[in-house]
What does this fold into?
Amino acid sequence: MPDVSFVNLFAVTLVALLAPFLLGLAPKVRIPAVVLEIVAGIVLGPSGLGWIKADLPVQIVALLGLAFLLFLAGLEIDVHRLRGRLLGSALLGYVITVVLGVAAGVAFGAVGWVHSPVLIAVTLSATSLGLVVPVLQDAGRVNTDLGQITIAASSVADFAAVLLLSLFFSGSGGSTGSRVVLLVAFAALVAVAAVAVGLAGRSMRVGDVLLRLQDTTAQIRVRAAVVLLVAFVALAEKFGLESILGAFLAGGVVGLVDRDSASHPHFRIKLEAIGYGFVIPVFFVASGLRLDLRGLLASPSALLRVPVFLLALLVVRGVPALLYRRSLGNRSSLAVALLQATSLPFLVTATQVGVASGLMTPVTAAALVCAGLLSVLLFPVSALALLRKRAKPETRARMDHSRMGEAM
It folds into this structure.
């Protein structure tokens, strides 16, 4: 057996267990477990107490966690809802985001904080759909106009950010034109694979086998999804594109072909159990282990980047919500702005790509991740408070209307 120690991986998985458990003991503390996982990694890692390090086993599991995180993000996108005016507004909002992001990147480049304004624009352009949807569910707004607008805008932002990161900052080198050609070829193969998977799923014989084996030890649907995930990641790497694009598209394909879930209601729960139960928390804890907090705290000017990046995130993703003022009103539009500006998983991913490519310093990466942590802590809670305040007058109005009806 190779001389590999699992001590650090044990410590990371223990942190992953304790983070949500401790939050469960204090239900009034509305902090996502991902925040506590990253913070614990910072405290226990090289930048803090130095008790845990990201050795080879931790890095391998963390890489799988990143792939699964993007896979589940792609799985959450409902392409059937992205159409018509909703899609048009989401696309226009993302164009505004990119313009504002480039402007912010140029400003940060002028003061020497970043090397690539476009990378900063892409990094700031995503929204954490997986963190936004639970907030909308808590407020009972998923199926309202506000909820659908927010989900559509977040879906477009997630997909476009992953696409742009892979297109412009892939580690393969080469010109942008050659990458576009590779991207088109890759997309064609993904489309062919999606059609093939869809046709196979309609076969009565294949469907009978899937139904018979899906809840046995074969777990055939889960295995098929994992094969598709690994295949798309490997294919993206072969084409010189970022592996996260393959993982994201694999999730999108599974979500597209998995329309009728009546015969397999536990399929997605099983996928989430693998991801959120094991590999994804390891990725977030490992991200905290790699965060250069000491460099960030070394000087006040470096630490100043955190609130500035947080403000930039709010402006870049929040300003496009002004498009919805006429239909939603000021308070709801502000809530949408806060939800759209909530970003962390993609920030972690993009900063790691930036550091690996030499386009971003570890200090800037740490500042961006800290800004993402603050966005997750502050923005969803504020948006939920706004939505609840708006819901109270609406509830009173419905009660008054009901009483008037009874009186008549």
Remarks:
- The chain has one domain: 7-403.
- Residues 394-408 have pLDDT under 50 and may be disordered.
